[in-house]
Records
---
Amino acid sequence: MKRKSLSTLAAALSCFFLPSALCSAQSSDTPPGNSSQNQTPPAQQQTPAAQLPNAPSSSKSEPSLEDLGFSASQTQADAQRQALLDKRTHMLKVHQRLGLIAAIPITATVIASFGAGGKDTSSASRDLHAALGGVAGDLYFASAYYAIRAPRIPGTTTRGPIRFHKAMAWIHGPGMIATPILGIMAFDQKSKGEKVHGIASAHGPVAIVTAGAFGAALLSVSVKF
């Protein structure tokens, strides 16, 4: 206790004789053992995530079509062109269905033609052949109407089997016009008891070529090759 009183008295005397700044500095010093408890190690100080170098941004978005070089007009759908495409697709589907249906009476007409010729054929066989030919012609021209009236899409090209399909149309199209005309001439001659003669005698060969071209056109769009 005496030593502590003497040290306190010495400190008071030193503050009396020394300048006040040195005295306050000595009184504010903390013991060496407590200095480590009040200091935070540098390693434990956390740096905000926003100040980290090369930190990924949470607002990053995918590149737009305009960033890739497409203009706004190019990325918008053309309503008029799409309407033409839809109409053409519908009409060509009807054309294909009618063509498939027309193949039935066309085939039947060719088969019935074998009993419609010659001297001893009955009028019933000729009537059946003519009736089947009339049904086949109606279905054929209805199918052709949808193909011809289907709107064209600018900038499109015909490729592959479609080119062959259109090429066959230049054969079976005129043939379907010439065949019934020649058939009417042949029918009149047979009804009068005459032998088919003149240009009417070409009815059979023209009909066979026409049916063959129509069948080839049908297969070109129905079977993949």
---
Amino acid sequence: MEKILKKDPDAVLAIGTSAFKKVREIKGLPVIYTMVMPSETAGPLRPNISGVSMDSDPAASITAMTEVFSKARRIGVVYDPRYTAAFVGEAAKAAAAAGVELVVKQAHDPRDLPRLLDEMRGRIDVLWLLPDPTVLTTTMVDYLLQFSFQQNVPIFTFADKYVELGAVAALVADPYAMGIQAGEIVKRLSTGRPGAMREYARKPHLSINTKVAAKMGLKIRGEVLKRANNIE
């Protein structure tokens, strides 16, 4: 950080979570982030910090789920309010507008997860995994996938790596598009626009694990499969 400040820049662009952690305490000049885990930007941030979330707009995810799982009416979400409360609040509004129900459970510790999933047994049609560090520990990811296969409840998530592991689908932020958004924020800041600008990732792509979908007996419409990144 000392090297950065010695150069007297007009702004700082942080790419990635580790980089953002090192510069988030800078004062007096704009800090713009991208490719940062949403949990790192969920709490109060300095007014000089702007950026692009790795999350897609909750409404876009709800729309994608209703397209992929056309018969689903109950979407389960387990989350830690310390990290994803604001996102889940917006998601609940988007779900209501789309005519589907969000079944939410709060986890304050990874060890809460087995009990919370048991409470959702038979009550959900899809399980939505968010980028929540309390829920997505290595052990709990295995447990979530096991629950999905045992209950025949498909998982929808945010990253291709989970689709490769056995989730049925994901809406994935595009790094190139996020870079463009970060550049647009810098441009707006350079014209003197006041206040922080924090945006959801635009132009996410849909990924589908067709093999897992077939094993679960899911019939996904051809037009949805045609525009998706198919993973086996």
